[in-house]
Amino acid sequence: MARRVGGPGGTPASGTFPVTLGDVLAAQRMLAGVCRTTPLVVSRHLSAAAGTPVRLKCENLQRTGSFKVRGAYVRIARLAPDERAAGVVAASAGNHAQGVALAASLLGVRSTVFMPEGAPLPKLAAARAYGAEVRLHGRSLDDALDAARAYAQETGAVLVHPYDHPDVIAGQGTVGLEILEQCPEAGTVVVGMGGGGLAAGIAVAVKGLRPDVRIVGVQAAGAAAYPPSLAAGRPVTLRAPVTMADGIRVGRPGDVPFRIVARLVDEVRTVSEDELAAALLLCLERAKMVVEPAGASPVAALLSAPGSFAGPVVAVLSGGNVDPLLLQAVLRHGMAVAGRYLSLRVRLTDRPGALAALLEVLSAAGANVLDISHVRTDPRLGLAEAEVELHLETQGREHCAELDAALRDAGYPVLH
């Protein structure tokens, strides 16, 4: 786990900041009646693990399923009449597209959104349903952003950047105001980071009212542009960011949020893909919250180092727009990481009743067989041998060890 630890410098009320507390307060007034005040719920499981109260800020329950509509609405609402008439354009992996589409529709502005080829179908359909014209371009968010910039130059449409604009950051900062209204005693706020707009906005709001509250940003290890950027003192570009968390798969910090994050965010941590999968599974099972991997990143950080956060802790679930196919794959992987799935191979004497005897051992040990297949023609096997590959549902890592021991005690050679 990579970290940057250090105290913030300056104050978000000062003129050197591109976004001030006053900007965020003005955005909150503008968003009244437009965005929901999302709930802040206690997580008993995470509280027990962390040894301090943990609350979840449920932006996955926001309109469009993420926080993005906050910043998009503020940005578009502040456009001059002639800019609105020209329409807006955006690039997005999904959530920003929906936020821009809804905000533009509410304000009577035409919107065009560029999304990478292969973007999740539910996010494509949702952006269109909210009123945007959706165009697919390239394989990454950066490719889509290049196309959006070109479209803006050609047509005069205003580019609504997903994170690199003061109005967008001010809108996202209203999440921080709500956190302090709902949990004035908060000690730490943990928030996922891609380009940094949400973390920057929350930091401005929270530090402006409670400078003592720690702000911890979380990035996916395969797309962590902030640690090297902070070390270099300027935004650094990653060549090929890789993570299933498409909401924070950004190759370069935004210039505007970077200036804020570098001075106000106390620490940046990274989490692995396995940790993201386990966090998503926990949110679903324990908190009854459907979140996307990016939205689960603060929970992943809490699970990876539960005793290292000053409480009470608020973890921001930034979005819930997860592709069902990805959700299925992530849940299976998360269960495997948690020891809830066990795959093994067992050699048997190839005779009638041998498989039934093996299954009896597994049944007695409490395993649920999900899948089974036979191999009889492998040259490694003896003439009267067969190999059985089993996929089992278990009750956790201890149960996996018990199953392994039960099979060996019964005389079965076990291969993993």
UniProtKB/TrEMBL annotation:
EC id: 4.3.1.19
GO biological process: isoleucine biosynthetic process; L-serine catabolic process; L-threonine catabolic process
UniProt-listed InterPro entries: ACT-like_dom_sf, ACT_dom, ACT_ThrD-II-like, Ser/Thr_Dehydratase, Thr_deHydtase_catblc, TrpB-like_PALP, TrpB-like_PALP_sf
Transmembrane segments: none
Cofactor(s) in the UniProt record: pyridoxal 5'-phosphate
Keyword Lyase in record: yes
Source domain of life: Bacteria
A GO term for molecular function: L-serine ammonia-lyase activity
Enzyme class at the top of the EC tree: lyase
The entry's keywords: Lyase, Pyridoxal phosphate
Domain ACT: 343-416
Family the UniProt entry places it in: Belongs to the serine/threonine dehydratase family.
Record-linked PANTHER family: L-THREONINE DEHYDRATASE CATABOLIC TDCB, THREONINE DEHYDRATASE, MITOCHONDRIAL-RELATED
Protein name in UniProt: threonine ammonia-lyase
The organism of origin for this protein: Streptomyces morookaense
Lineage: Bacteria, Bacillati, Actinomycetota, Actinomycetes, Kitasatosporales
